Amino acid sequence: MKKPTILLIEDDELDIISVERSLKKIESEYVLHTAYNGIEALRILRDTDLGLIPDVILLDINMPRMNGIEFLKIIREDTKLKNLKVFIMTTSSEGDDRFEAEQLGISGYIIKPLNYTDNSKRPDSMDAFVQFHLRKILLDEHI
User: Fold this and answer.
1) HEC states along 67-83?
2) Is 56 left (phi over 0), alpha (psi -120 to 50) or beta?
3) CA–CA separation, 39 and 79 (whole Å)
4) Residue 97's domain spans which residues?
5) Which residue has the higher pLDDT, 61 or 94?
6) Which positions bear 4-aspartylphosphate (predicted)?
7) Which residues are 31's β-sheet partners?
């Protein structure tokens, strides 16, 4: 049986480590691919040799070169990629970002902690997402 795949699009190493740590708590196997910006993610998704169509994309909104909103606009216009499940990860609580992402058909919105030495902002946001949402998505897709 094919392992579920996750594409993480994130430019911050600490956030990548945090996501990887949270993902390890899933009690199932998965394959994680990482891209550091939207341009690199599009290359991965369009690479016919790789043939990657992930079960879930975890997408940072604020990145250099191509941000999450720009990336979303492009994949939503691509017939092969438009139906991918995309969850936005951001420290931004800007209503405009949330509204625009929702208009582009995201599956969910995860607020990242703002400070790694004091995780009081929402320390459980990623862990809760992994435990309650991502686990169900990955298991349901590959039963």
Assistant:
1) CHHHHHHHHHCCCCCCC
2) beta
3) 18
4) 5-141
5) 61
6) 60
7) 5
